[in-house]
Design goal:
heterodimer; A: 240 residues; mainly alpha; MetI-like fold; 9 helices; B: 240 residues; 2 domains; 79% helix; 0% strand; flat; ArtM/GltK/GlnP/TcyL/YhdX-like (chain B); transmembrane (chain B); transmembrane transporter activity (chain B)
Chain lengths: 240, 240
C-alpha cells in the first residue's frame, strides 16, 4: 500500500512528476535530435567536400564532439552560454548574472554531440548510394537541388534509419546528464524524489524502469520504421 | 591568449589524470571479466542463465549510466544488511562505487560485442578442433576466443573510448577526476573556454593513444592477413 502511495498519482505520490520528467526527457532528446540532424547534415556535407580545409573542419568537429566526455560539453554549453547571456544582458542594461535556460542549454549540448554522431551516419548512408544512380541523374540533366531532393535525400534517409535509431538511444541516455543544469527531466526528478523521501533505491529503480520503457519503445518504433522504409527494396543481406 | 593561466590549468587537470586512468583501467578490467561471464551464460545453452543474461544486457544497455551510478552510490547504503556487512567499508568509498557501476554498465555493452565476435567463428574450425580431440576449455582458449576477440576488436575499441568518456560521470558521485576538477575550475574562474580546451586536449590525447594501441593489437593479432597480402601482387587477397 505504501509503495502505491509513494509512486502513485495522489497528493503524496511522485508518479505524476516522474511521468512529467519522462516527457521532459523526451522533449529535450527530440529537440537535440532535430538540431543534430541539421548539424549532422552540414558536417556530413563538409566531410564529403572536395576542399581539404572544409573536410578537415568537419573531421575536427566530429573528433571533438565524439571524443570529449558529454558532461564536459554540457558544462561548456551551460557555463559558456550563461556568460554569453550575461554579457548580452549587460549590454541591454541588466545587472548581474543571468543563467542560460537549462532546456536550451541541454538541447544545444546534446544536439552538438548528437550532430557529430549523425554526421557519420549520414556520410555512411550517402556513400551507400550506388554511384551509377548519381551519374544517371546527372546524365539526364538534373540540377544539383533536384538531384538532392529526388535521388540523394530519399535514399540517405532510408539507409540512415538504423543509424539514427542508435543515435537516438545514445542521446536519450546522454540527456540524463542534462540534469546537472537543474532541468527537471526524468533523472533530476528521480533524484529530487529520492532525496526528499530518502527512498533512494526505490526512486532510482523507478526512474531506471521509465528509461527502459522509453528506450525499448523507441527501439520498436525504429524497427518498424526500418521495415516500412525498405518495403520497396529487394530483400538482401541483413533484412529478414 | 593567457598562456600562464592555460599552463596552470593544464597542471591542475593533469594532477587528476591518475584518478581518471584508475577508474578507466579498473572498470575495463572488471567489466571485461564480467562480460565474458555474461556471454558464457547467454550462449551456454541453459535457458534460465540465457534469459538472465538477456535481461542483464537489456537493463544495463537501456538505462543511463548516471542512474545506475546513483543507484549504487546512494541506493545500496539504504539497506541495513549491506551497511552492516563486510563489504560496506569498500562500498562506502565513492571510487569503489564508481568503478563498480562503470564495470557493471560496460559489461552489458561488451557482452553484446563479444557475442557478435563469437558469431564470426566459422563452425568448421570448431569441427576441425573437435576432430583432433580438443574440447572444453582448450577449444575455447586455442580456437574460439582468439578468433572471436579479433573480430570483436574494432567494436570493442569504440566501447573502450566510450568508457574513457564515461569516467567523467564519477565526478557526480564526488570522485575528483579530470572533468570534476575542470568543473570546479570553471566555477571558480568563469573562464569556461580555456578550461574546456585543456580538459578536451587531455581526453582527446588519451583516446588517440588508446585507439593507436588497439590498432597495434589488431595488427599483432592478425598475422594471417599480413602474410596473405603480398602473395597476390596487384590483385585482391584470395579468400581462404
Amino acid at each position: 500500500m505504501w509503495l502505491v502511495e509513494t509512486l502513485g498519482f495522489g497528493q503524496t505520490g511522485w508518479g505524476g512528476l516522474l511521468l512529467m520528467g519522462a516527457l521532459m526527457t523526451l522533449c529535450v532528446t527530440l529537440a537535440a535530435l532535430l538540431l543534430g540532424a541539421v548539424l549532422g547534415a552540414i558536417v556530413a556535407a563538409a566531410k564529403l567536400s572536395q576542399s581539404r580545409a572544409i573536410r578537415t573542419a568537419g573531421g575536427v568537429y566530429t573528433t571533438i564532439f565524439r571524443g570529449v566526455p558529454e558532461l564536459l560539453i554540457i558544462y561548456l554549453v551551460y557555463f559558456g552560454g550563461s556568460s554569453a547571456v550575461t554579457a548580452i544582458g549587460a549590454y541591454f542594461g541588466f545587472e548581474g548574472f543571468l543563467g542560460m535556460p537549462s532546456f536550451i542549454a541541454g538541447a544545444l549540448a546534446v544536439g552538438l554531440i548528437c550532430g557529430a554522431y549523425q554526421a557519420e551516419v549520414y556520410r555512411g548512408a550517402f556513400l551507400a548510394i550506388p554511384k551509377g544512380e548519381l551519374e544517371a541523374a546527372e546524365a539526364i540533366g538534373m540540377h544539383r537541388f533536384l538531384r538532392f531532393r529526388r535521388i540523394i535525400m530519399p535514399q540517405v534517409l532510408r539507409f540512415a534509419i538504423p543509424g539514427i535509431g542508435n543515435v537516438w538511444q545514445l542521446s536519450l541516455k546522454d540527456s540524463a546528464l542534462v540534469s546537472v543544469t537543474g532541468l527537471a527531466d526524468l533523472m533530476r526528478t528521480s533524484q529530487v524524489a529520492a532525496g526528499s523521501t530518502r527512498q533512494y533505491f526505490l526512486f532510482f529503480i523507478a526512474g531506471g524502469c521509465l528509461y527502459l520503457v522509453l528506450t525499448s519503445m523507441s527501439d520498436r518504433l525504429f524497427a518498424r520504421a526500418e521495415r516500412r522504409a525498405s518495403r520497396s527494396m529487394p530483400a538482401g543481406i541483413g533484412q529478414i | 591568449m593567457d598562456f600562464p593561466f592555460l599552463f596552470q590549468t593544464m597542471k591542475t587537470l593533469l594532477a587528476a589524470l591518475p584518478v581518471t586512468l584508475g577508474l578507466f583501467s579498473l572498470s575495463v578490467l572488471f567489466g571485461g571479466f564480467l562480460a565474458i561471464l555474461i556471454v558464457w551464460m547467454r550462449v551456454g545453452g541453459n535457458p534460465i542463465l540465457s534469459r538472465f543474461a538477456r535481461g542483464y544486457i537489456f537493463v544495463f544497455r537501456g538505462s543511463p549510466l548516471l542512474i545506475q551510478m546513483f543507484l549504487v552510490f546512494y541506493g545500496l547504503g539504504q539497506f541495513g544488511f549491506i551497511r552492516h556487512s563486510f563489504v560496506w567499508p569498500a562500498l562506502r568509498e565513492p571510487f569503489v562505487c564508481a568503478v563498480l557501476s562503470l564495470a557493471l554498465c560496460t559489461a552489458g555493452y561488451t557482452a553484446e560485442i563479444f557475442r557478435f565476435g563469437l558469431r564470426a567463428v566459422p563452425p568448421r574450425e570448431i569441427e576441425a578442433a573437435r576432430a583432433i580431440g580438443m574440447s572444453g576449455f582448450l577449444l575455447v582458449r586455442r580456437i574460439i576466443a582468439p578468433i572471436a576477440f579479433r573480430h570483436a576488436l574494432p567494436a570493442y575499441s569504440t566501447e573502450i573510448v566510450m568508457m574513457v568518456k564515461s569516467t567523467a560521470l564519477a565526478s557526480l558521485v564526488t570522485v575528483w577526476e579530470v572533468t570534476g576538477v575542470a568543473q570546479r575550475l570553471i566555477s571558480q574562474t568563469y573562464r569556461t573556454m580555456e578550461v574546456f580546451l585543456c580538459a578536451a586536449i587531455i581526453y582527446l590525447v588519451l583516446n588517440f593513444l588508446i585507439l593507436q594501441a588497439m590498432a597495434l593489437l589488431e595488427h599483432y593479432l592478425s598475422p594471417h592477413r599480413r602474410a596473405a597480402a603480398p602473395l597476390v601482387p596487384g590483385g585482391l587477397p584470395v579468400s581462404r
